[in-house]
Amino acid sequence: MSRNCFIGQSGGPTVAINASLAGIVARCKEEGYDHIYGMINGIKGLLEDHYIDLGEIFDSSDKITQLKNSPAMYLGSCRFKLPNIILAPGTYEKLFKKFNAMDITDVFYIGGNDSMDTVAKLSTYAKAINSPIRFIGIPKTIDNDLMGTDHTPGFGSAAKYVASSMLEVFYDSAIYKLNAVTIVEIMGRNAGWLTAASALARENGATVPDLIYLPEVPFDTDKFLADIHEKFKEKSSIIIAVSEGIRNKEGNFLDQDSKYTKRDAFGHVLHSGTGKVLESIVYKEFHCKVRSIELNVLQRCAMHIASSTDIEESFQIGEFAVKQAISGETGVMIVVKRLSDTPYQIQCETLDVTKVANLEHKIPVEWINKDHNDITPALHDYLYPLIQGEVHVNYANGIPQYIDISHLRNKMIKE
């Protein structure tokens, strides 16, 4: 039987999303796929006939390895939500006409919550028209907020970056003996996994962050200031990790009324300013040196400090997706099940994608301390295995040498 597939990537970039792509390509080649097509800029790009033949490009194991160890998204991305099937059947008719013309047997789509919505809609439409095409979702997101999986590809490496950055901020701030507060704002709209990972900076004897604030519990400004007062009794320099998405007991984001507030294509608030809001509050209370640091996109694609556990698992997930498609599965997302923390062991499984799409996985409240300003040992034990191991990165002219992405230039697509 002839086998041909499409692979797409969408949403935000990560260190590990190309590792999953590499795993799919490697396994498809091993299984003898005739064509391995890559959508340029996701499903939006495919609707505009932008795609390439990955099988021809990645014709050696060395090239696949270079793809595996390159950050961001080789195929580009989009933030495009497929319309309701009933209201806009023409979009689906166009896509499936293309799939059928190219004898597509499998479609693999790598992404987060909204990408899994795409997989769910495509597989639902396929079933409605009795199409045999299989649709498989491969998870990715540094936020670690996808339901149904122990953790998501990309999170472990971002967590490693956050912890390492926190440690380096500690060394930077330790040189002066004066009262100072440093606030580090970390990505996480509704889930605080990345901010919680800042606690891993303590692994080698450091004592930072001194305080951690997560969006899963209400933020109390008076309690926040009282916490700092207590810490100043112990030390002169205080470092605080805070999620961009913290909100008060009324459910309002701290930066909600900022004049800089923007929204993405899906209507999600693009938070940028939580650290600045807190910086102002702290300065008014303590009149000491206060600075805020926003890690922002820096925590997404730092391959130079990636977790090899993350990269290898992501590659494995890509391979497993191909195996499941060949076995006949469709309308599923590949998930990770943790078998044990020590020794750390996982296995890949599948889950109905409709049970995942548009849902969020948040930190269990019992994994946050009773004062709501730190994590518990249980959360530490969950995080610790995910940042282990280093990735070999090739350097040229003094900087990392990643895979060529010239095919993405001048490919502007209207959202």
Structure notes:
There is one protein chain. The protein is an alpha/beta fold. The protein folds into two domains: 4-141 and 303-359 and 389-408, Rossmann fold (3-Layer(aba) Sandwich), CATH 3.40.50.450; 158-299, 3-Layer(aba) Sandwich (Rossmann fold), CATH 3.40.50.460. It contains twelve helices and 15 strands. It is elongated. The two termini are 37 Å apart. 50% of the residues are buried. Mean pLDDT is 94; it is low at 411-415. InterPro entries: ATP_PFK, PFKA, Phosphofructokinase_dom, PKF_sf, PPi-PFK.
Assigned CATH class of the largest domain: Alpha Beta
Q: Helical amount among residues, as a percent range?
A: 25-40%
Number of strands: 15
Main sheet properties: 7 strands, mixed
Q: Rg to the nearest angstrom?
A: 22 Å
Our count of helices gives 12
What is the beta-strand fraction?
15-25%
Low-confidence stretches: 411-415
Mean residue pLDDT:
94
